[in-house]
Amino acid sequence: MKFFVDTADIAEITALVETGLLDGVTTNPSLIAKSGRNFLEVVKEIADIAHGPVSAEVVATDYATMLREAEVLRKLARNICIKLPLTMDGLRACKALSGEGTMTNVTLCFSANQALLAAKAGASFISPFIGRLDDISQDGMELIADIRLIYDNYEFKTEILAASVRHPAHVLAAAKIGADVATMPAAVIRALANHPLTDKGLEGFATDWAKSGQSIL
Ligand code: E4P
């Protein structure tokens, strides 16, 4: 499973790149606004730091303007993935961009039928929003499972990018179903490494080692 971080915070991205565990970055207009920085500048900086795909979202809602925005964004770096909303105009733009070899991520997916359309439009990634479905008492994980089944039935190459991931249990469930990628806040990636028994065990080893009076170096 690939791990993307869902942020526009350069410090967070840099720290994760250094671990060697990060496969890409996703942003959205809200995350860019939160960063307080210029959209194009921050996306370019992220793309220079990150090794994998960096999703940058168009803000237009009509086909023609989406394509014009995509043209500006994809010129920023080779690893830019154009993020498009799951609307008929967004799907049409996805088909056009995918057709000419541009990486695409269709976002704001809340149903399996929407995901089926994104695959037919040739999307590189489909982003079902798990957490936002859970927020309205629907089962986000059931959506991931339905999309996995449909994509496998027809051998679609579109990668399932589990999005709106809020906690490690989401990552575990999505991994068991076979989502190709999970995008999550940096805190969730770090939380995956935590276990109280790991902390307790480390403490015990340190105490016993101190008693031995030895050193490795
Ligand atoms: C994905 O690409 C989105 O940016 C993101 O996962 C949305 O998450 P949220 O529901 O926590 O805002």
Automatic annotation (TrEMBL):
It is found in: Cytoplasm. Transaldolase is important for the balance of metabolites in the pentose-phosphate pathway. Its main location: cytoplasm. The keyword Metal-binding does not apply. It catalyses: D-sedoheptulose 7-phosphate + D-glyceraldehyde 3-phosphate = D-erythrose 4-phosphate + beta-D-fructose 6-phosphate. Keywords: Cytoplasm, Pentose shunt, Schiff base, Transferase. PANTHER family: FRUCTOSE-6-PHOSPHATE ALDOLASE 1-RELATED, TRANSALDOLASE. Its EC number is 2.2.1.2. GO terms for molecular function: aldehyde-lyase activity; transaldolase activity. It holds the Pfam family TAL_FSA. GO terms for biological process: carbohydrate metabolic process; ketone catabolic process; pentose-phosphate shunt. Pathway: Carbohydrate degradation; pentose phosphate pathway; D-glyceraldehyde 3-phosphate and beta-D-fructose 6-phosphate from D-ribose 5-phosphate and D-xylulose 5-phosphate (non-oxidative stage): step 2/3. SUPFAM superfamilies: Aldolase (SSF51569). Signal peptide: none annotated. This is Probable transaldolase. It comes from Polymorphobacter multimanifer. Belongs to the transaldolase family. Type 3B subfamily. The active site is at K83. One of its GO terms (cellular component) is cytoplasm. The gene is tal. The lineage of its organism: Bacteria, Pseudomonadati, Pseudomonadota, Alphaproteobacteria, Sphingomonadales. HAMAP family: Transaldolase_3b (MF_00494). The keyword Ion transport does not apply. NCBIfam families: fsa_talC_mipB (TIGR00875).
